[in-house]
Amino acid sequence: MTKAYLLVSLALLIAVLFGAMIFADAGLQLADVSWNSLPTLHWTAGGQTWTG
Fold it and tell me: Computed over its alpha carbons, how large is the radius of gyration of the chain?
């Protein structure tokens, strides 16, 4: 293996990991927003059984 090949491989690995972290973070925020909106909708609909 040449140094260039190693550098390119390392750069790709870092880029993939960084992209995965960003995607996971965005996914968690999206899931968090959707789960937080459900109790609110349930509560405003009159079902006040939600405690959290």
Answer: 21
Has this prediction a pTM greater than 0.90? Answer: no
pLDDT single digits (tens) 6-48: 999 999 999 988 888 878 777 777 767 666 666 555 555 555 5
Asked if 18 contacts 26 with a C-beta cutoff of 8 angstroms, the reply is no
What is the residue type of 16? V
User: Amino acid identity of 52?
Assistant: G
Going through 1-52 in order, the beta strands assigned E by DSSP cover: none
Count CA within 13 A, CB hemisphere, residue 6.
Answer: 3
Look up residue 50 and give its two tokens.
């939600």
| Residue type for position 44 | T
